[in-house]
Fold:
Amino acid sequence: AIHGDDQGLMLPFCVAPLQIVIVPILFSKDEKQNNAILKECEKLLNDLKDYKVSLDLSDRSAGFKFNEWEMKGVPIRIELGPRDLEKKQATVSLRTSKEKLNIKLTDLKKKIPELAELNDKKLEDTANKYFKGNIKDASTLSEIKKIIETHRGFVRTPFCSVAMEGKTCADKLKAETGGVDVCGYLFEKQEKPTGNCPVCKKKATIVVYVAKSV
Ligand SMILES: [Zn+2]
Structure:
């Protein structure tokens, strides 16, 4: 666990093993309506397939599902019920905030990065103190590997880039460490890097925070 409250885990979007869960709100009597909702949920599932997303089709009550996904720290929950369908919208909840947002179905996909950032920002605000005592420094790949074996928080390391050109290094880091993700955007303050990217050995341009998914 990186952080939590009495409802369970809270996770930054980038390290959450499941980032988005879609929960259909079905009322057993109206089969036609249920089918229309399910169809829309399947469509969303497909739209969002670039993320780690799941559609909860189990028979459990909506309340039970909400609890479970909250416990597991899924950052974004999308509900779709009869009223949402009527308005061509979904009801979105972030794990780190109590408020619910109504978002047009056609806008949902492009809103995900913004929602992820909002989730992480709130997490950062509430957990800042926790994170501060939970960071270790590394400058080589073997150091990162060694620290991550026993440390459940963040590892701070210089890195070549968090733009597209750094993606190869991020992918390689993940592959070679058994699942460590770059979570650089968690911290807004800019730090001056020294040394080189632990992966490609180019001069570092940025300091990033990496962590392993739980
Ligand atoms: Zn690199």
